Amino acid sequence: MPNILAFDIETVPDVDGGRKLYGLEGLDDGEVAQVMFAKQRETRDTDFLPLHLHRVIVISITLRSEAGFRVWSLGEGGGDEKETISRFFDGIERYSPVLVSWNGGGFDLPVLNYRSLVLGVSAPRYWEAGEGDREFKWNNYLNRFHYRHTDLMDVLAGYQARASAPLDQISVLCGLPGKLGMDGSRVWEAYQEGRFIDVRDYCETDSLNTYLIYLRWELMRGNLTQSQFSEECRMVRTELKKHDKEHFNRFLDAWDYDAA
User: Fold this and answer.
1) Neighbours of 253 (CB within 10 A)
2) Predicted structure pTM score
3) How many domains does the chain have?
């Protein structure tokens, strides 16, 4: 099995960018964000900001490699965003994993692209398209139809936006926990209140849901036998139990393992 890296990001409004774009010097972060939301509602009837106006506060990773299985996060309370993003792309540079996401092509990666541009993050392996490594010509991270980055939402919808489904609902239908007490619309509020741990835990469980759906997809494709699939699920459960963290325990309690 190649290195499999399922990931998810959480973001907040890029209030520094909002100040620059809209001349909002003198306003605090909360006030700047409210102006940004209001401007978005004027044109789109939604608070959801354009992707270039997000700031990354955490990247959660679920990794299956020859060394085993591991879940962890990059980012400590939204501190050094450049370091957080750099560490993510450094892992790609070093291991060239298969990236797995849910709507990563529509949200996570474009946000990381814009933030890398603004912050000056280098990511040559990620941007490789065959010029320096011929193996990447027909299987790279950039092409929508290549599996080096597998956006499960896009793939399962047959690349038809109208057929896409939310991660939470697909997870629950597959016997997985889905979202546990948090969703993306509440991240900014939690971040302002200093509840970064809640945001990080939510992000980690989303990456877990994504990875476990990936295993089911590999079973569906015939790349895993039923016994191999069951063994991979057992590995996940064993590792999560070992760490005895509250959000992992809640995930395990909500996971209908018999459905696997």
Assistant:
1) 9
2) 0.96
3) 1
The pLDDT of residue 115 is above 70? yes
Type of residue at 224: L
User: Which tokens hold the place of 76?
Assistant: 């400590």
CATH number for the domain that contains residue 218: 3.30.420.10
The sign of the torsion formed by the CA atoms of 167, 205, 128, 134 equals: negative
List the one residue out of 185, 184, 186, 110 whose CA is nearest residue 154.
110
pLDDT in tens, 6-62: 999 999 999 999 999 999 999 999 999 999 999 999 999 899 999 999 999 999 999
CA–CA separation, 181 and 225 (whole Å): 33
d(CA 45, CA 27): 24
33 neighbors 15 (Cβ within 8 angstroms): yes
Strands 4-13 and 68-74: unpaired
Across-strand partners of 56? Answer: 11
Would the pLDDT of 110 be above 80? yes
Identify the domain containing residue 19 by its residue range: 4-259
Q: Residue 78 and residue 88: Cα distance in Å, rounded?
A: 14
Half-sphere exposure of 255 (CA within 13 A, CB side): 19
